[in-house]
Amino acid sequence: MTIADSVPAKKEVRRPGRPRKEDTGLLTDRIVQVATQLFLDNDFETTSVDMIASTARISKKTFYARFSSKEDIFVAVMKKGMSGLFMADAIGIGDEAPVDEALYRIGLLLVDRSLTPKAKALYRLIASKSVQFPQLTATYHEGGARLREVVAAIFLRAITRGEIRPADAYFLADRYLDAIMYAPMSALILQGRQALPAQDPHRHVKCVLDLFLEGCRDRR
Questions:
Q1: I want to staple 158 with a disulfide (CB 3.0 to 4.6 A). Which of 11, 31, 98, 163 is the partner?
Q2: pLDDT tens, per residue, the chain with 220 residues
Q3: Distance between CA atoms of 166 and 163, rounded to whole angstroms?
């Protein structure tokens, strides 16, 4: 045994000072998560910076180091919510899968994310604050356009492979999204219906898909 072997290794001691970049990011995410729940449970007017800071167990100084105002964090909350709603991470889903499998997979993900009580509260917040925060409307439409591109790409691949007859892939994407997501979304908001029960998403997607592909496939 050498002298070096007999000397215990020194533990790294974190000295007080500026937090690490990854710690700062985690704290910001936590603040946004807390603010999201408060905005959805209450509303924009009722929720205050004091409430957010208290619930997140941070000081107001820490809050204002990351967000300039309640309006600033509200926009961050809404943009993050819409990113999840419109599946910003969905690019590439089902690239090599048959059309029915690819559409089922993305349809089920959309239903799981968009037809829930939390999503219902998010829609209402967006609708009620779209005039005060016009950037939310722009973000909503941008998210919808990206999702449309993803679904249109699935139809275009299916047409190229001969799985369905030639048609306008964007028209097909619009109609599929209407049936899977937008029409049920409107029913949630405008007609006051409840979100789909836990056992219904698979059935909803399967019924839409069967009906949709029946009209898209070549009958010759």
A1: 163
A2: 554 455 555 544 444 445 555 567 789 999 999 999 999 888 899 999 999 999 999 999 999 999 999 999 999 999 888 887 776 566 566 667 899 999 998 998 888 888 777 888 888 888 888 888 888 888 888 888 988 999 999 999 999 999 999 999 999 999 999 999 888 888 777 766 655 555 578 888 998 899 888 888 776 6
A3: 9
- CA 209 vs CA 37, 107, 163, 197, 206: distances in Å: 33, 9, 14, 19, 5
Q: Which two tokens stand for residue 50?
A: 């004091």
* Phi, psi for residue 118 in degrees, rounded to 5: -65, -45
State how far the Cα of 153 lies from the Cα of 145, in Å rounded to an integer.
Answer: 12
Q: Identify which of 198, 201, 191, 170 has the alpha carbon closest to the alpha carbon of residue 107.
A: 201
**Helices and strands in the chain, H and E counts:** 11, 0
Give, as one character, the DSSP assignment of residue 49: H
Contacts of 205 (CB under 8 A, 6+ apart): 104, 107, 108, 111, 180
- DSSP letter at 136 equals H
Rounded to whole angstroms, the Cα distance separating 60 from 57 reads: 10
